[in-house]
Structure formats: structure tokens, C-alpha cells
Amino acid sequence: MKRREFLKLSTTIAGAAMTVYMPANWTPARAAAKWKVGFSQCTTLEPWRVQFNKDIQAEAKNQPDVDLVITDGQDKTEKQVADCENLIVQQVNVLLISPKESAGLTGVVEKAIDAKIPVIVLDRNVDTKRITQFIGGDNVAIGRAAGEYAVKLLGGPGKAAGNVVEIWGGMGTQPAHDRHDGFHAFTDKEPGIKNLLNNQSGDWKQDKAYNIMTTALRNNEKIDLVYGHNDPMAYGAYLAAKDAGRDKDIKFILGIDGLPDEGVTWVSKGQLTATFLYATPGAEGLRQAVKLLRGEKLQPVITLPTMLITKDNAPDILKKNGLL
After folding, report:
1. Which of 20, 21, 28, 43 is paired with 269 by a 20 to 30 Å CA distance?
2. Where does residue 169 fall: left (phi above 0), alpha (psi -120 to 50 degrees), or beta otherwise?
3. Per-residue pLDDT, 30
4. pLDDT value of residue 14
């Protein structure tokens, strides 16, 4: 395993090529005063989402022609829809949105397009091709990398064996399905790997993952590996195992997010075996909005890089962030 391992990510989403979609008769607004860019965040209850907001706010300081308006959907689809409708009424020049659910936000995204407002979708996609751009990680590739690493930990291709607990993110989000599908592209090839749960959703939350893991521990005498769709859920599973006195028996726990003060720290301490850096698209989203408003051409998809983080390279990342 190389010290730093970057994943090669594709420029397709859900297996389908995308094109830049612009509202009819749209022209860039002049920044005589300021461009108003609206950002609809689905929640700030998750640490990764808090970092997401910090990243876009930091980039806004580098864009003097931008008046950035951020809303918080409070982890409720109906609230996020109302937020987007309000941003449409405000006639923002560009709408950035990171949906709580793909289907639930599709209608209001198309409503923005019909109002001649370009829409850049961040992290989680919506169920329409009528968007201007998508920016995010390739969650299938991340899932595949996690699955490949899990197979290695459990004995290697053709030899891997063990009982696996998978804790899903939100069932209504494409990233959760992609992380599941990618993972199983590797693990399902191994007859010795047994999956203990049927699509248990932790909704990206640590406390819900703790409860799922508590039940799994009660119902299964042997658990070898936990795959959490994000770091807080993987850590919640670890805490449940620790409280049950079984954390030493479960040798491998994987997560995704790679925040220095969370996932990377937990890996450094040996509480998680590995995590995958999943950078937020906040700063890039705002940069692309400004590029669009200046009349420059956009790529239909920007896929952000990710990186496997293990105990080997975690200290370097912590030092770089002043945490070690």
C-alpha cells in the first residue's frame, strides 16, 4: 500500500454522461454592485456539513463581487424546498444546492431553472438532467476502494472471510447507494464474506449508528468488520463495540469523510482502521458560480479527488492541520 493513495475518479454520475444545462435566454449578470449567489445547505447537524459551510464562506472572502446567502434546511426536505423557493424569489444569480434527498429537491431545482436561474448541484445529485453542473466525489469509486481494502483486511482476494456490518447513510440519497454498490462490487465476489444486516440506515448520524451496532452486537457473536458510509457512523459503531467490551474483537472499522479533527484523528488513535478523504465541494462550487457569471464555460461535472487515510499517513495530515 502506498503512503498516499489517490483514487482515479470518473466524470460520469450514476453511469450517465452529463451536459451543461443552461436556462433559456440566460446571460451573465454584470457585477455592477454584487452578484447574489444562494447556497441551500441541507443540514448543519453533521460535522462534514459544518466544514462544507466553512469552506464556501472562506472562498466567499476571496470573491469581493459575490454576496453569498446561505440557508440551512435543518435536515428536513420540506424546509430545504422552502429555502430554495425563497432564494428563487430573491432572484439570486446562481443557485448552489446540496440536497438532503435526490427526489425531494428535484422539483424546486427545475423551478429555479424555469426562473432562468442556473443551478449547480453539490455532493448529492437530483433526479433531473436539467442542472448546470454537478460537483462532488465519485461515491462508487470510493465504495469500490473501501470494498477492495476490506477484502485485503479480511484475507485477500479469493481468501477473504468474515462477518461484515454495513451501516448506510440516508437511503434516499444517491451517495449512500453508490457507496454501497461500489463496496459490494468487491466484497460480493468473496464467498467467505457474510453480510449481517439488511440495509440499515444510520442517516449519517453517529447516535443512530450506535443503536444499529448495539443491536448487531446483541444478535451476532462474531463481527469482523464494520463499514460505515461516513466517519461519524463508523465511530458510533466503534463506541457501541467498546461499550459492549468487544472493540478489540472487531479489528477493522472503515469510514468516509476524512476530517482532520474526526476521522483522521480516530484513525491515528487506532479507533478506525481507515477512512477516505471526501473533500467538501463548497469552495469549488462558489468558484464555478463566479466563473459562470463571468461568462466562462463550465464542465458538466467536476469530480473531486479522494485519498485513503490509514495509520501510516494520518500523522502527516494531523501535523499539516496543526493537530499533532
Report:
1. 43
2. beta
3. 58
4. 40
d(CA 76, CA 239): 27
DSSP string, 162-178: EEEEEEES-TTSHHHHH
* pTM across the whole model: 0.86
Minimum mean pLDDT among 10-24, 81-95, 176-190, 210-224: which range? 10-24
The answer for residues whose C-beta is within 8 angstroms of residue 61's C-beta and 6 or more apart is none
By C-alpha distance, which of 38, 132, 138 is closest to 80?
Answer: 38
Residue 157 binned pLDDT confidence (cut-offs 50, 70, 90): very high
Q: What is the dihedral of CA 148, 149, 155, 158, to 10 degrees?
A: 10
CA distances from 78 to 37, 98, 104, 233, 236 (A): 21, 14, 8, 25, 28
Those residues with Cβ within 8 angstroms of residue 30's Cβ, 6 or more apart along the chain or in another chain? none
Q: Which single residue is written with the C-alpha cell 470510493?
A: 142
Res. 175: pLDDT tops 80 = yes
Which phi-psi region, left, alpha or beta, contains residue 74 (left: φ > 0; alpha: ψ -120 to 50)? left
Q: Are the beta carbons of 150 and 142 closer than 8 angstroms?
A: no
Cβ of 7: how many Cβ atoms within 10 Å?
A: 17
DSSP state of 313: T
Q: Which residues, at least 6 apart from 82, have a Cβ–Cβ distance to it below 8 Å?
A: none
Name beta bridge partners: 136: 303
Reported as type and span, the H/E element at residue 137 is: strand 133-137
- Quickly count: other Cβ atoms within 10 Å of residue 261's Cβ: 12
Q: How far is CA 284 from CA 94, 135, 307, in A?
A: 14, 8, 18
d(CA 54, CA 41): 12
Q: How far apart are CA 89 and CA 281, in angstroms?
A: 25
Cα 258 from Cα 178, distance rounded (Å): 18
